[in-house]
Design a protein that fits this description.
Shape: elongated
Strand content: under 5%
Number of helices: 9
Structural class: mainly alpha
Largest sheet: none
Length: 155
């Protein structure tokens, strides 16, 4: 479910190899045959579903999970290889950085940022207004929100 939530928030639909399914939750074999995303599924405890024993499933938090979210390619691919969301928001709210940040928070956390959060983020906004610079900044903001404990807890 976390995989699908991350991708929905990012407006990214990766290839799921050897399947006509478009969501990880629909995969019947635990993602074992999905060469592109199998590492994410294995890291986050999706069972290989080789038996009916509940002992196959792992639900404990692990360091590898945190490292994958922070350094892994699941979020990075969506932000870099298929940039859809941030460029669209930049186009819609070119002169209102607060609205871009608010949209990112609502997409990921289903709430607007607090005044403290908004002020802290806006204080880090680059002085320049080139699209490349702004996209990199908002990518970082969204990456931080997706890696927050609040996002992980909610989804």
């Amino acid at each position: 479910v976390l995989f699908d939530c991350i991708l929905q928030a990012l407006e990214y639909q990766p290839a799921i190899r050897r399947s006509s399914k478009s969501k990880a939750i629909d995969l019947f074999d635990g993602g074992a045959r999905d060469d592109y995303n199998a590492y994410f599924f294995k890291t986050f405890g999706q069972a290989p579903r080789e038996s009916v024993c509940a002992c196959e499933t792992s639900s404990e938090a692990k360091l590898s999970q945190a490292l994958h979210l922070i350094n892994g390619d699941t979020i990075q691919k969506a932000l870099v290889r298929n940039p859809v969301l941030i460029p669209r928001l930049l186009k819609q709210h070119k002169d209102d950085p607060g609205k871009v940040i608010e949209d990112l928070f609502v997409r990921a956390l289903s709430r607007s940022p607090s005044t403290i959060e908004m002020n802290a983020i806006l204080a880090e906004k680059p002085a320049g207004d080139s699209d490349k610079e702004l996209k990199l900044f908002y990518d970082g903001v969204f990456w931080a929100v997706l890696n927050s404990s609040e996002f992980l807890f909610n989804h």
